[in-house]
Amino acid sequence: MTTLLLAxxxxxxxxxxxxxxxxxxxxxxxxxxxxxxxxxVIGSFLLGLLTGLFALSSPDxxxxxxxxxxxxxxxxxxxxxxxxMVEAARLWSxxxxxxxxxxxxxxxxxxxxxxxxxxxxxxxxS
Length: 126
Fold this sequence. Notes:
It is a multi-pass membrane protein. With about 130 residues, the chain is mostly helical. It is about 85% helix and about 0% strand.
């Protein structure tokens, strides 16, 4: 049952990523693929929040399957760091090394910061 829920959550995460990217793309005034940055920052925040809420708690209070379904399934399907790195390489090639490095740096720094904020909020709420 857990495997089925993981697959469904992964599909839901991927569908949410597609919709989020479409919305951001419609409103993106920049020449960089901003949707992927937004998606990875939001996904990192959610995973940090989940970790703060559940992973640090006693195994008896939350099910491991729920953590796996939300964390690995949904957040894994939603985030797309491989795409971010391909986009950074494409920007490096098309716009120059500076643009590619800045894009990768913003993606990484934003995602790590969002995960830390989510973790902090999750710990406060648990």
